[in-house]
Write a structure and sequence with these properties.
39% of the residues lie in helices and 17% in strands. Among the domains are: 229 residues, Glutamine Phosphoribosylpyrophosphate, subunit 1, domain 1; 89 residues, Outer Surface Protein A, domain 3 (Alpha-Beta Complex).
Length: 747
């Protein structure tokens, strides 16, 4: 398929790297131990920048820079220093429009390298605090300005690249990851249990929030997105210069709907072109959905390699199959990275990943993505960047269908209004009963204005602010850490701030059409993708019909070695104050017997809190994965034995004890029809002919969760080998569960 977009050009791009440092803000100089501490901070970030490590000291401040050299490996070293030595700048990230910015400084700046980030130093020397106004990209920046006696810390508009800060006793500590700050002896190292447990992102409460993102640790904060934190080295006085905020809707009724669709197409193409600039190989994580397919289509002329997750979940929900089909349609190589039913992280492997993430929101997604990056680097040693489809759902209506509760756009906005109302009422939440306690509300939404004026004027706008917060709290964190842990840079074309500004300012009159099920993106890419790809419904990675495979695997992880991870979490310094160990163990036992009895990812999150509590004391080293190496499966038939064997449930034998899963009933029709039915959660799912499958029907009825399979087979009088294919099929379909049996203790 031809593409109307320009060919890729190679040249200077960016570096995925790590920044760390500290400054005295009381006028005092650095101690003799400063260099040792700075080196410890830098070593904590080594996975982010395995290619190079640099240090810079001044009398009051110092910084380190670890680098993954995507571009200009010889000349792109940082920090950058002005000719007079008074301004020192380090940047982690990518400046998309560095060439035009460089050209704008022609004749006024002397460049010493081919690095895209050097332009930031010259912009700062010329424009001061306004130096980021015209910069497009993703970045975390630290500037030591000895002329003005100040330290500046800045992040890109959306907060894609991380930067953390701690203020304590006349000092400022900063770093691309929290573990770097923890290397400084004066940085508090304490998990903020109370704030973490109350955070909507962690507890998954049905609530809308736009609170500032949390870091999970006391006295450690994010440098705000779209802002420059200006800290005086004389007295610590701090001012925040905000250079960007999420825009509000523009009632631009004079612009046709087609303007926004066409602009979306043009901006996405431009963003992908810029993300393809590198002197190292770039790949794509390709799912079966629309967003990564669009990125792949716009990149297809480069012949880049695509990587997809092949798990039990992605086989059942067809995400893996759709990804392979998309790659074939685009003529791109596709690597199916296999995670078999027996591939669960060990306790040590999980703790390593959790420490890399530094977040209790560490779950299956983080594990799968980290392993996919690991595979991509091993399979393609020259690969140092991956393009992702992240960010499209949050800002273009990707969750509208799911939040509509089976209804349409009006139901979606009604549900948003309810969430916005709850948020507005806050401590006055009992007032909500006037709206939610009846199907005929007695109060109008204007009554909410008495508590928070204007709170429900634009529920969709409130929703965007909520999703923006989610992106900063979760998505950006996931993509940055899973990539950086493997020495790869994650690039996110959909999160070009020009695209976000366009989507945020779509007039209200156009929202219903453009934001229902991401129609604006479907329309924008209709000329570069086949209709069969554009029309695919949204797929949620490992979620959906096959989610039981993933949840089962991570339930097994928690139960492994006598609940090793749970027991370690419960032994952490402050676990006894917050966690109920008895109920955590009971919850795990229930999940082992019935996945529908709870949500394993919520249990994992409180376990993660306990483990992180330990880690703040131990400060483990960042280490590469010790688990089995990921591998590729060449799939020719997604329903063939090569796939089914890989993702079959635990091998069953004569001593296995099986039962029908919760909600599964076997019902008979009238005697004349000789027909039985399998009903799942009240819905008819399967028909069984009593004449041709009488033995199977009897066996199915006999699986009571008490007798062994051999005992049931003997009572029915059937042949186990003949029944095995139907048993395996029923297990995979979720109709049957294996009842865990107690392990006999050694005598």
């Amino acid at each position: 398929m031809s593409t109307p977009y320009a060919e890729i050009h190679t040249g200077v791009g960016s570096h995925m790297c790590g920044i760390a440092g500290f400054a005295h803000t009381d006028g005092s100089g650095l101690a003799e131990s400063a260099d040792r501490i700075l080196r410890d901070m830098a070593r904590a970030l080594r996975p982010r920048g395995p290619d190079d490590m640099q240090f810079h000291h001044t009398e009051q401040a110092c910084m380190s820079f670890t680098r993954l050299a995507l571009i200009d490996p010889e000349g792109g070293r940082q920090p950058f220093v002005s000719e007079d030595g008074n301004v020192i700048l380090a940047a982690n990230g990518e400046i998309y429009n560095y060439k035009e910015l460089t050209k704008s400084l022609e004749g006024r700046a002397k460049f010493r390298s081919e690095s895209d980030c050097e332009v930031l130093l010259h912009l700062y020397l010329e424009k001061g605090l306004d130096f980021l106004d015209d910069v497009r990209g993703m970045f975390g920046i630290a500037v030591i300005d000895l002329r003005e006696q100040r330290l500046l810390l800045a992040r890109d508009r959306l907060g894609i690249k991380p930067l953390f800060i701690n203020r304590s006793r006349g000092k400022v500590l900063f770093g691309s990851e929290i573990k770097a700050l923890f290397q400084h002896p004066e940085c508090p190292r304490e998990l903020d249990w109370a704030r973490a447990l109350a955070d909507q992102g962690l507890n998954a409460a049905p609530a809308m929030t736009d609170d500032d993102p949390v870091t999970w640790f006391k006295e450690v904060d994010h440098v705000p997105s779209g802002a420059i934190v200006n800290i005086s080295l004389r007295d610590g006085a701090t001012r925040v210069h905000r250079y960007w905020e999420l825009p509000t809707p523009a009632e631009a009724d004079h612009l046709p709907e087609s303007f926004f669709v066409q602009s979306m197409a043009e901006l996405l193409a431009s963003s992908v072109r810029e993300c393809l600039v590198a002197d190292a190989e770039i790949g794509v994580f390709l799912s079966g959905g629309l967003d990564s397919a669009a990125i792949s289509a716009l990149s297809a002329h480069t012949g880049l390699h695509t990587f997809s997750a092949l798990t039990g979940s992605t086989v059942v929900n067809k995400d893996a199959q759709y990804a392979q089909q998309t790659a074939a349609l685009l003529g791109l190589p596709n690597h199916q990275v296999a995670f078999g039913a027996d591939r669960i992280p060990s306790a040590d492997e999980w703790k390593r990943l959790l420490w890399l993430m530094e977040s209790p929101q560490c779950g299956p997604e983080q594990f799968y993505k980290s392993e996919m990056y690991r595979f991509a680097r091993a399979e393609r040693p020259g690969l140092k960047a991956i393009l992702l489809g992240s960010g499209a759902d949050e800002f273009s209506g990707g969750y509208s269908v799911g939040l509509a509760g089976g209804g349409g756009w009006d139901d979606f906005t009604t549900n948003l209004r309810t969430l916005a109302r709850r948020k507005a009422l806050g401590s006055q939440s009992p007032v909500s009963v006037w709206w939610e306690g009846t199907d005929l509300p007695l109060l109008s939404d204007r009554a909410v204005d008495a508590y928070l004026p204007g709170a429900v004027d634009d529920p969709y706008g409130s929703y965007l602010a909520w999703k923006f917060r989610d992106m900063q709290q979760y998505n950006f964190w996931v993509e940055d850490r899973t990539a950086s842990a493997n020495g790869v840079e994650a690039r996110v074309p959909f999160l070009d701030h020009r695209i976000i500004e366009l989507l945020a300012t779509v007039p209200r009159a156009y929202r219903k059409r453009l934001f229902w099920d991401k129609q604006i993106i479907r329309d924008a890419v209709k000329d570069i993708l086949p209709a069969e790809v554009i029309s695919r419904p949204k797929l949620a990675f490992y979620e959906g019909e096959g989610v039981r495979h993933t949840h089962r695997a991570f339930t097994r992880m928690l139960a492994h070695h006598d609940d090793e991870l749970i027991e370690e979490a419960l032994s952490s310094p402050r676990a006894a104050q917050y966690l109920d160990g008895t109920n955590m163990r009971r919850a795990l036992r229930r999940l082992e017997h019935d996945q529908s009895s709870g949500h394993v990812e919520l249990l994992m999150r409180v376990v993660n809190l306990g483990l992180l509590d330990h880690m703040t004391v131990e400060l483990p080293a960042s280490r590469p994965s010790t688990g089995p190496a990921p591998y590729e499966l060449q799939v020719t038939d997604f329903e063939g034995p090569e796939v089914l064997e890989l993702f079959a449930r635990t091998e069953i034998g004569e001593e296995s004890v099986l039962r029908r899963a919760e909600g599964v009933l076997v019902l008979d029709d009238s005697d004349e029809t000789h027909t039985s039915y399998v009903v799942v959660d009240g819905s008819l799912r399967f028909v069984i002919d009593q004449v041709t499958h009488l033995d199977w029907l009897r066996l199915l009825r006999g699986l009571d969760g008490r007798r062994t399979l051999a005992e049931v087979v003997a009572s029915v009088g059937c042949d186990l080998q003949e029944m095995r294919p139907l048993l395996d099929e029923s297990l995979e379909a979720g109709l049957l569960d294996v009842v865990p049996q107690p392990v006999a203790s050694a005598g």
